Automatic annotation (TrEMBL):
GO CC terms in record: plasma membrane
Molecular function per GO: copper ion binding; oxidoreductase activity
Pfam family membership, one: Cu-oxidase_3
Name of this protein: Laccase
GO biological process: iron ion transport
InterPro entries associated with the record: Cu-oxidase-like_N (IPR011707), Cu-oxidase_2nd (IPR001117), Cu-oxidase_C (IPR011706), Cu-oxidase_fam (IPR045087), Cu_oxidase_CS (IPR033138), Cu_oxidase_Cu_BS (IPR002355), Cupredoxin (IPR008972)
Signal sequence segment: 1-19
Stated family: Belongs to the multicopper oxidase family.
Organism of this sequence: Graphocephala atropunctata
Region (Disordered): 22-55
Domain Plastocyanin-like intervals: 129-238, 255-406, 545-671
UniProt keywords, alphabetically: Metal-binding, Oxidoreductase, Signal
Keyword Oxidoreductase listed: yes
Basic and acidic residues composition bias: residue spans: 25-38
Length: 693
């Protein structure tokens, strides 16, 4: 029986003026709510009716199925009556309830029977996690890899009970791409928005689906997402409200594709890093919707487990939603044999259509594309293939686009790392480490900055100069042996696979360490002496002193803030590219470029500052694109803006898990603490215990 330990009971405004209504315990008791308690001023009109909102209904009545992306529910007639995956209608919103159990598990374990011994039917047994056919320890949600796909409509109430059944581990879940404007305590960042969920505890995440588009979720505690704690999350709108709806015929639940990078070691084995064997934090292979086969570097196939298959009908145009739920320091390209892709959304934002042959994606990015299935009836290869910095591993994975009536096996020869499925001329979105400056765009593109939104940016965003400008410089501090081993301090470090140096991962020279208590819910308990001094670095000279502390950067509310993101390392065509993610906001992508090369960073950086303060900058287009996650070219810079209308503590970081876990992160404090909402009634508390002896 599901143990009822409700740690988070209420959401939204949390304001005393409106009040809040804690859910009853136990969970199976009557569940009542009203729009008064859940309606966000930024969500849909309150005149709509919510299914399941009447007194006397049980929350269990709105439990969603775990396998909505399996293909059997692509016909809406097969969906359960209470399904939140449905044709959306603003006149009705629903309550969407999920139960997540996080636990250690095994790929191709007992549940898989004879799956790896050519009994393919066993590979589809309930509870069988296939991965790439190699047995290893994994972490799963409801014994699924990836976790259950959440697919709801804008305005729905989403309730997820997360039970931690991982012995000796804490956890949280972050809803990547959701702004949590009125649900700040639900963002899922340990020691920023909440306490970690301890073993055997349940934390209830609850929020209105206010941000239409493609998102995903993942653990934000340690390296758990590397080992499998990820899943897809789609918030749809009524078709009439989709500006690109005339470009496709079908948007099916089974065409949400979660791509994971994969290794045969557990993630913790690679931190801080091994010296003699498996010395990389780079993937051995990939998984496409939790499945794949294992190919060695020379192309030999070592497993024969079934590949993921995506069914289509000839002559129809389909939306495919592609999620880079990857964690290692590598980008990849995604290609479909003989099929172009028409990009209609970048991350969660609808854009003006852009046709490409391949997508290059960084950890945390998402693209929604339309695939016109107008080729001869056949099956076609889909391929994920690592690029650039990770070419040495030659990691790739395959799946199948199957036209109905065709054989399950494509007629074309199986692609390899050397012979890509991109076997014809065409554009690649965001080529690896492309500079994407105004001068190089014609030869580099198309880049993120070339995409155009279907919506106009607010006039303040398009002003020549912002109200506030801040800088995030992503880099590394190289430790010497004395600093690490001949001291009583225990520094956080990572063994760099490319240089074999021991490094701290930094932003503005700072290795971020978690606060002693959550910043948002327990600011009064923070040991403020552990917080970095606000004048910890000098933008003018970039005279940085390495330190480990709680990295908070404060900006005022309701201002245009320009965030300039730079890479301290010099440009290398095959160099490491960080993936940048900011919680709580979409960032307007204004410019991209390369810092002046062959000079030290403390010389090239002031030149960039001078340029940004000048009148020589290009005019900002009305339809400038926004993203919440994007790649930073090695040695490059990206100029972004936000309008700070979402006060709170918002995490920003590199989305490469090992950089994040060794300090490449920070917290953007928007506004003053006394303007933030109080925590929900009964919200968990945690912190140091240091009594006087």
């Amino acid at each position: 029986m599901w143990t009822i330990l409700i740690n988070a009971l209420v959401i939204s405004h949390f304001g005393a003026a409106q009040g809040h209504h804690p859910y009853r315990r136990p969970l199976e008791d009557n569940f009542e709510h009203s729009d008064r308690h859940y309606h966000s001023p930024h969500s849909l009109p309150s005149s709509r009716q919510r299914s399941g909102g009447s007194r006397g209904q049980n929350l269990i009545d709105y439990l969603q199925i775990d396998d909505v992306d399996s293909g059997r529910y692509d016909d809406p007639r097969n969906l359960p009556q209470n399904s939140c995956t449905r044709p959306c209608d603003y006149r009705e919103s629903r309550t969407c309830y999920y139960r997540f159990t996080l636990e250690p598990y095994t790929s191709v374990g007992r549940a898989c029977g004879n799956c790896t011994r050519n009994n393919v039917n066993d590979c589809y047994n309930k509870g069988c996690v296939i991965a790439d056919g190699v047995e290893r320890a994994v972490l799963t949600i409801n014994r699924r890899l990836p976790g259950p796909s959440i697919q709801v409509c804008a305005g729905d109430l989403v309730v997820i009970d997360v039970k931690n059944s991982m012995p000796g581990r804490s956890t949280t879940i972050h809803w990547h791409g959701l702004k949590m404007r009125d649900y700040k305590f639900m963002d899922g960042v340990p020691m920023v928005t909440q306490c970690p969920i301890l073993e055997s505890n349940i934390f209830r995440y609850i929020f209105t689906a206010d941000d239409p588009g493609l998102h995903f979720y993942h653990s934000h505690d340690g390296l758990q997402k590397v080992d499998g704690i990820v899943g897809g999350f789609v918030i749809r709108v009524p078709r009439d409200d989709d500006p690109n709806s005339d470009l496709y015929d079908l948007d099916q639940p089974s065409h949400v594709i979660v791509i994971q990078d994969w290794h045969h070691l557990v993630a913790d084995a690679m931190l801080p890093g091994l010296l003699y064997d498996n010395t990389d934090q780079r993937p051995l292979t990939y998984l496409i919707q939790g499945r794949g086969q294992y190919f060695t570097k020379n192309g030999n196939r070592l497993t024969t487990t079934p590949l993921s298959e995506f069914n289509v009908t000839q002559g129809k145009r389909y939306v495919f939603r592609i999620i880079a739920a990857t964690c290692f320091e590598c980008q990849y390209t995604f290609t479909i044999e003989n099929h172009d892709m028409l990009i209609i959304a970048a991350d969660a934002q609808s854009i003006k259509p852009y046709r490409v042959n391949s997508l290059t994606m960084s950890p945390g990015e998402r693209y929604s594309v339309v695939v016109n299935c107008n080729k001869p009836t056949n099956s076609y290869w889909m391929q994920v293939r690592t690029v650039g910095y990770c070419n040495a591993t030659e990691a790739y994975q395959l799946a199948v686009l199957r036209y109905r009536g065709a054989s399950r096996t494509p007629s074309a020869t199986s692609p390899t790392y050397a012979v890509s499925a991109a076997n014809r001329p065409g554009l690649t979105m965001s080529p690896f480490n492309s500079i994407c400056s105004i001068e190089t765009r014609d030869r580099d593109g198309p880049c993120v900055s070339d995409l155009r939104s279907v919506s106009a940016a607010p006039p303040p965003i398009r002003r020549a100069q912002p109200d506030v400008r801040i800088y995030w410089a992503f880099g590394f501090y190289i430790f010497n042996s004395n600093e690490l081993y001949n001291t009583s301090e225990h520094k956080v470090f990572l063994v760099s696979p490319s240089t074999n140096n021991s490094v701290g991962s930094t932003i503005n020279g700072i290795v971020n360490v978690p606060a002693s208590s959550p910043l948002l819910s327990q600011s009064e308990d923070i040991a403020w002496e552990t917080v970095c001094p606000p004048q910890g670095f000098d933008y003018r000279t970039w005279n940085v002193v390495h330190r480990e502390c709680v990295h908070i950067m404060q900006v005022p509310a309701n201002q245009v803030v320009e965030i300039v993101i730079v890479d301290e390392l010099p440009y290398e065509p095959a160099g490491l590219s960080h993936s940048i993610h900011l919680h709580g906001y979409d960032m307007y992508i204004l410019e991209m470029g390369l810092l002046k090369q062959n000079v030290p960073f403390n010389q090239s950086f002031p030149q960039l500052q001078k340029y940004l303060s000048s009148n020589n900058r290009p005019r900002i287009p009305v339809d400038v694109v926004t993203k919440d996650t994007f790649p930073l070219t090695a040695g490059g810079y990206i100029v972004t803006r936000i309008y700070t209308d979402n006060p709170g503590f918002w995490f920003f970081h590199c989305h490469f898990a090992y950089h994040l876990d060794t300090g490449m992160s920070g917290v953007l404090q928007v506004g003053e603490i006394d303007s933030f909402p109080p925590p929900p009634f009964g919200f968990p508390r945690c912190g140091d215990y240091l009594p006087f002896p």
